[in-house]
Amino acid sequence: QVQLVESGGGLVQPGGSLRLSCSASVNIFGINVMAWYRQAPGKQRELVAERTSAGSTNYADSVKGRFTVSRDSAQTTVYLQMNNLKPEDTAVYYCNALYRLRTYWGQGTQVIVSA
């Protein structure tokens, strides 16, 4: 059982930066994969970035080079550093965890990049 809580969303100007946090209720080492998804209004939820327990990462082409996902094991937290934000990055961002073959979701945090 994993509980996830996202934070760090907000309003930012194009070209600005935000750092999202996802805190897990279990030791981060026990989570096989942690990922960030986003869902814009009227659009399907999409994978933004993911990181395995081994440290490998994967990014959507649309965010590659701008977003970075990292882990802080001591804080049981995963971060998503978002730089050079664009209006099309506007969405609700969700933390996702794969733990013991089950998927868990956070409640989401809103990111708005003003036009």
* Radius of gyration, whole Å: 13 Å
The number of helical runs is 0
Unreliable spans are: none
The assigned structural class equals mainly beta
Global morphology:
globular
Mean pLDDT: 92
Write the element-wise H/E pattern from the N-terminal end onward.
Answer: EEEEEEEEEEE
Content of β-strand: over 45%
The helix content, as a percent range, equals under 10%
Number of strand elements: 11
Topology of helices and strands:
Layout: E1 4-7, E2 10-12, E3 18-24, E4 33-39, E5 46-52, E6 57-59, E7 67-72, E8 77-82, E9 91-99, E10 102-105, E11 109-113
Parallel strand pairs: 2-11
Antiparallel strand pairs: 1-3, 3-8, 4-5, 4-9, 5-6, 7-8, 9-10, 9-11
Which features would summarize this protein structure in a list?
115 residues, mainly beta, 7-stranded mixed β-sheet, globular, 4-stranded antiparallel β-sheet
Write a brief structural summary.
The chain is an all-beta fold and 115 residues long. It contains no helices and 11 strands.
Any overview of this molecule?
This protein has 115 residues and is mostly beta strands. It is built from no helices and 11 strands. The protein has strands spanning 4-7, 10-12, 18-24, 33-39, 46-52, 57-59, 67-72, 77-82, 91-99, 102-105, 109-113. The strands form 2 sheets. Strands 2, 4, 5, 6, 9, 10 and 11 form a 7-stranded mixed sheet that branches. β7 and β8 form a beta hairpin. The chain is globular, with a radius of gyration of 13 Å. The model has no long low-confidence stretch (mean pLDDT 92).
